[in-house]
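My convention is simple: the sequence line spells out the residues, with the fold written below as integer tokens. I include a record here:
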Amino acid sequence: MKEYGMLSHEVEKEIEFRTKKILKKKDDYFSKEDQILTSYFVFSEGVFRAYIYRKNKEINVWFGQENQFFGTAMLYANRPSPEKIQFLEDSEIYAISTDDLDNLYKLYPELNLIGIKIAEELCVILEDRITSLHTENAPERYQSFIKEHPNLINRINLGHIASYVGVTQETLRRIRKG
């Protein structure tokens, strides 16, 4: 969080007190489709995928990794998320409930600026993904994936990457061969 702004020792202690450490094994699920999440998370170790299931097919919509915040926009609406989140490696994450975070925002106004910066970063990521899906062909989407996630290319299987790019594994193999 320090990359988003300075925190006093008191704020750091409050965050530590209200944050829970969660350990997950490879292939465990964090959430299932239509589950309502009530916390925000930051990844300490590991990789996960978020996917939706449509027409008997898993469609990967994003990947998470170390030092990344995640949650769902549905937190704000108190609605179930359409995504399933599955761990692709043994993982360590930290969770803080939305209620605790809202209370911290009220107690420590300096946290609001950090929250805004994180939200802005997530909006940019989402806009880049939407733009990619609407304007790039499959080889360009694959190149965007490599550019945006260079350290994930050897940590995620080709089937998951192909789904994210929107092609079959065979097509992805051809794209990779050039």
